[in-house]
ATP-dependent Zn protease (Candidatus Phytoplasma solani), 258 residues
Amino acid sequence: TDFLQRIHDDSAKKIKDLFNEATDKEKNPKGSVIFIDEIDSFGATRNEFNPKEKEILIALLAALDGIKTKQNIIDGKPPVVIIAATNRFEILDSASIRPGRFDYLVKIDLPDLNMRQAILKSYAQGKNFNFDFLQLAQETPGMSAAQLKAIIEEAAFLNLTKNPNNQQSPIDMHTIIEAKDNCLLGIRKKDQTYDLETKEIIATHQAAKLIITQIKKSHFLSSVSLIPRESDKFLFLAPQPNSSYLTFQDDLFQRITV
């Protein structure tokens, strides 16, 4: 990302300098690691209409061709390990991810129940939480580590606003639920209310969705609210965790129904 944001006319030179520094045995006698975050920002399929991104990608591919990580390890030489991360693997240029440039492709799936519980505990360290982490992990299927972190931080913030004179006040499940609703449905619109008729219409619609999810067992209810919110959302349904890596026709029909 820095290449696109900060480099203008000397993109190729900057990439070459980076790899030269990484392969310098005097500076890095034990080897080195280059981590490229958001490689899709310039490593996507070559676009003839964006010469700057194309120039950066070509320079990167040339630099990668000069790295012999496996051979260096076999020969006992200091290795240079290249790691890249992306959330948009499907748009990467096929030439950039072929063997010899990136030998291993590792998919990081969304955390399962045990991982969510561990992530929540990790982000809650140093904070006075008084609730069941397992329960919260069970109520957040399909959520990423970033979403879980946001819930913990929002809960700590809400607790501080409620108890400004007692920063060590325990954060209970009620505050966690409020934080979860804020993160998944949006913050509350304090200057807006619904009349009774509007509430009945919204409640009927959301109740119908909930009934279908219970019958189909296709989604898990993470949050529901009739409070006006900035996102205009009232319901957050997460797909039920699938023990199989395959998605079947019935699964798709159940999701469409909801």
Observations:
- Residues 147 and 183 are 8 Å apart (CA to CA).
- DSSP finds eleven helices and four strands in the chain.
- The radius of gyration is 25 Å.
- The first helix runs from residue 2 to 6.
